[in-house]
Amino acid sequence: MKINGTTFTFSRPTLPDWHTLTILDNGQPKTFATTYGSGAKPHIIRGRTTRAAETVTMSATGPVIAVPEDYAGNKATTILR
Fold first, then answer.
1. What's the Cα-to-Cα distance from 19 to each of 2, 11, 22, 56, rounded to whole Å?
2. 48-71 burial by CB neighbour count: b if 16+ within 10 A, else e?
3. Each residue of 27-40: pLDDT tens digit?
4. pLDDT of residue 38
5. Is 64:80 a contact under the CB 8 Å cutoff?
6. What are the backbone angles phi and psi of residue 52, rounded to the nearest 5°?
7. Residue ranges of domains in the chain, CATH in brackets
8. Which backbone phi and psi does 61 adopt, to 5 degrees?
9. Measured over all CA atoms, what is the biggest interatomic distance in the chain, rounded to whole angstroms?
10. 4: exposed, middle or buried (C-beta count within 10 Å: 0-12, 13-18, 19+)?
């Protein structure tokens, strides 16, 4: 992940079984464009979210939290800011 002011560029998790990555900005999920005309989703989806969509503008204050989820439904919470 790269942070430049309020611009965050997320990288895809290196875990082999991750399925989605939810990014919460002040408690609200960010949306990300997907491939194949599926529209914006409230998380990054493995194999469906475009690389360009992984760069987003976050609020200037408040917490930013990443929540990866694997195919079995296990989740982990990481506070990024």
1. 21, 14, 10, 20
2. bbeeebbebebeeeeebbbebbbe
3. 999 999 888 877 88
4. 77
5. yes
6. -60, -35
7. 2-79 (2.60.40)
8. -135, 170
9. 35
10. exposed
* Per-residue confidence (pLDDT) for residue 67, from 0 to 100: 95
- d(CA 68, CA 4) in angstroms, rounded, equals 22
Predicted pLDDT at 34 = 87
For the chain, which ranges sit under pLDDT 70?
Answer: none
**Token pair in block for residue 28:** 């609200």
Q: How far is CA 9 from CA 27, 66, 73, in A?
A: 18, 12, 24
